[in-house]
Amino acid sequence: MGESGAILAAAIETLAQTPGIMLKATSSWYITKAIGPPQPDYLNGCAILEVEQPPQQLLETLLATEQKFGRVRSQHWGPRSLDLDLLLYDDLILDTPTLQIPHPRMCDRAFVLVPLAEIAPNWTEPVSGRLVKDLLKDVDCSDVHLLKGS
Ligand SMILES: Nc1ncnc2c1ncn2[C@@H]1O[C@H](COP(=O)(O)OP(=O)(O)OP(=O)(O)O)[C@@H](O)[C@H]1O
Ligand SMILES: Nc1nc2c(c(=O)[nH]1)N=C(CO)CN2
Question: Does residue 101 have its Cβ closer than 6 Å to ligand 1?
């Protein structure tokens, strides 16, 4: 919800300025049809961060950044101002009540795999053992559209 392009750019900048985080790459932004209850389109993208923070601390940083940009949790999979998900962390597999890595739904989501394949095509998703660029071949990308100029 809101000025999504500006919110995403500002959120990325916030992360890049966080001690222990170095921004290595960002994808283009993609306009994507919402999965879940009826709601406006999303703007999705991915970034690669080099971090000194362990995964749980990185999740806290992401959640704090969502809060900074006004994230309110109401409806499940409902509209939101900003959603920052931790998709992959090296080749780590982690399953705790508050954090699962890889993100458990990433392999099914064209809105994740299209931008991720742009910046990390040869990253292996460690649960399936498959490359991001190969996972992308198995999803329907018809509802994912490049935002021109991004
Ligand atoms: N890899 C992960 N990245 C982000 N949050 C995660 C992850 N694994 C578990 N979580 C937990 O999920 C909680 C809820 O996340 P959130 O409300 O953003 O879900 P969502 O984005 O609506 O749905 P989805 O998880 O399907 O993308 C977070 O507070 C966090 O504890
Ligand atoms: N297009 C799109 N749909 C969604 C998204 C998202 O990022 N993009 N995130 C969701 C929950 O995280 C639910 N539905």
Answer: yes
Ligand 1 atom nearest the C-alpha of 100 is 8
pTM for the whole structure: 0.95
* Annotation marks residue 105 as catalytic: no
What's the number of CA atoms in the CB half-sphere (13 Å) around residue 20? 7
Question: What kind of fold does domain 4-146 have according to CATH?
Answer: Alpha-Beta Plaits (3.30.70)
* Ranges 9-23, 37-51, 58-72, 81-95: which has the least confidence: 58-72
Q: Where are the domains of the chain?
A: 4-146
* Cβ contacts of 138-142, under 8 Å, gap ≥ 24: 139/108, 139/109, 139/110, 139/113, 140/110, 141/110, 141/114
Q: How far is CA 136 from CA 47, 55, 107, 109, 131, in A?
A: 17, 25, 8, 9, 9
